[in-house]
Design goal:
Largest sheet: none
Helix content: 55-70%
Structural class: mainly alpha
Shape: globular
Number of helices: 25
Strand content: under 5%
Low-confidence stretches: 5-9, 13-17, 263-283, 435-470
Number of strands: 0
């Protein structure tokens, strides 16, 4: 009997390969223009919206399974992180967000195709790792110290955010340690730039152990030929690596006070605190020495809570010229007692103002105030272990140069004491990290830079007159 099957069904179907995600083409030039526009606009305020738009391009590029396109995407972001040092944390967060989203994307594809394992050599994180190594080799061959410092900072951020693993930069770290042992001060600064962010990370102890940081620093310190600057930097870095301090979630004492509901920064309470010791409000003339100390310290605590620069300048004016150094010492003591780097930096910023210098110049109040607190550092550090570091932050933020700091330590600290070397080492560590957070507070612009790229995705660090906008 004849078969009842339809001729169309009985005909063999042509061999068509199954659909794959990388079968969707991508316009690489359109992607470059869109990325340039998005990265030019990215700030901390609009980071979520801009990064979500960049994520769509990252997912589309990885689906093409084209290693060249992935490298172009990674190169744009990595070189932005190197050249735009003001926003390098944003670029590190962007890399982390892209890696997390792409890993989730791969997990979703494995549910459809259990045998889809992915290619680690054709992934965004693989491209970033390769670029980090190639950029380091390129910069090391050119001998550009500034580019080396910027790359080291960005690699430290990528390491903390989990984009780079300890094994990815182990070779780079070995080269930096080896050159530092040969008394290369630029490599010593680069080490500080890279590891200064690592020692503040939540998992700092794990990263430090995997990279054998302490062993490397101790090898450098055993060399007799290294300079004093290198030795101070390594000693300060060793102390930070051994005595790890957990990262403070709060950016200031004021924010911590607000979160915990301690409503101590109302105007009435601040005025009451500032006038309690004198009973005269804003006037501090004709009071006893003990009352003057209490008045100055109350005003210093009020300043740290209110962040009101005008009120601090008013306190300087209210004090007699020969007593203004007491307020300087009280500001420094209050910043040390708060154990808060934001407070220390803010006090240093206040002492760097031209108006404060004019009020303090006659009696050299700023230097006398520093001397009064530096003398007590050996005792202060027993209660506040980070007192030397906090003092260095204040000294650096107020604009005192290295020579002035050396003169200050010689005047305040007895010969043969290790306190002078320790304070100077902390200061040099901050000076080596001039492009960090404190540097941005001392005059760097908060504006965004616009970058343009060539056909291969290489980004120039110069500010462009215009950028793509859509």
């Amino acid at each position: 009997m004849a078969s009842s099957a339809s001729p169309l069904l009985s005909r063999p179907l042509p061999s068509v390969p199954p659909w794959k995600p990388w079968s969707v083409p991508i316009d690489i030039m359109r992607m470059k223009r869109a990325l340039c526009s998005l990265l030019n606009k990215m700030t901390a305020t609009n980071f979520d919206a801009i990064s979500d738009a960049i994520l769509q391009w990252a997912v589309a590029v990885e689906r093409t399974d084209d290693a060249a396109d992935l490298e172009i995407l990674a190169r744009w972001i990595v070189q932005r992180g190197i050249f735009d040092e003001l926003h390098l944390e944003l670029y590190a967060k962007l890399c982390q967000k892209i890696v997390d989203e792409l890993q989730s994307e791969r997990g979703r594809w494995r549910k459809v195709d259990p045998y889809s394992l992915g290619n680690p050599f054709r992934s965004f994180e693989g491209a970033v790792q390769g670029l980090a190594r190639s950029e380091f080799e390129h910069i090391a061959s050119e001998g550009s110290a500034r580019a080396l410092f910027a790359l080291a900072r960005f690699m430290g951020e990528l390491l903390v955010h989990g984009v780079l693993a300890a094994g990815d930069i182990e070779g780079i770290l070995d080269v930096l340690f080896a050159e530092t042992e040969r008394n290369d001060e630029d490599c010593a600064v680069a080490l500080c730039r890279l590891l200064s962010r690592v020692v503040q990370a939540p998992d700092a102890s794990r990263i430090i152990d995997e990279l054998a940081v302490i062993d490397g620093i101790e090898r450098v310190l055993q060399e007799d030929t290294i300079s004093f600057k290198t030795r101070f930097l390594m000693m300060s870095l060793l102390e930070r690596a051994v005595e790890l301090k957990p990262h403070d979630t709060f950016s200031s004492a004021q924010q911590r006070t607000e979160v915990y509901g301690l409503d101590l920064n109302s105007e009435e309470e601040l005025e009451e605190a500032s006038g309690a010791s004198t009973g005269e409000g804003s006037s501090a003339h004709g009071i006893s020495a003990e009352g003057l100390q209490q008045y100055c310290y109350a005003q210093a605590q009020s300043f740290l809570l209110s962040r009101n620069v005008a009120s601090a300048e008013g306190t300087f004016s209210a004090l007699e010229p020969q007593n203004r150094h007491h307020f300087v010492a009280s500001l420094i003591a209050a910043a040390l007692s708060s154990n808060d780097y934001a407070d220390a930096s803010f006090v240093g910023m206040l002492l760097s103002l031209a108006s404060v210098h004019r009020l303090s110049q006659a009696e050299d109040s700023i230097m006398l105030g520093f001397i009064a607190e530096v003398v007590l550092l050996e005792d202060t550090v027993l209660d506040i272990p980070s007192a030397y570091r906090l003092m260095a932050v204040i000294l650096y933020a107020c604009g005192l140069g290295q020579n002035a700091v050396q003169d200050l330590t010689m005047r305040a600290i007895a010969d043969g004491s290790g306190s002078a070397d320790r304070l100077l080492g902390e200061y040099l560590f901050l000076e080596a990290d001039t492009e960090g957070a404190l540097g941005s507070q001392r005059g760097e612009s908060d504006g965004s830079q616009e970058f343009v790229g060539d056909s291969e995705g290489h980004v120039s660090g110069e500010v462009s007159d215009f950028g793509y906008a859509y």
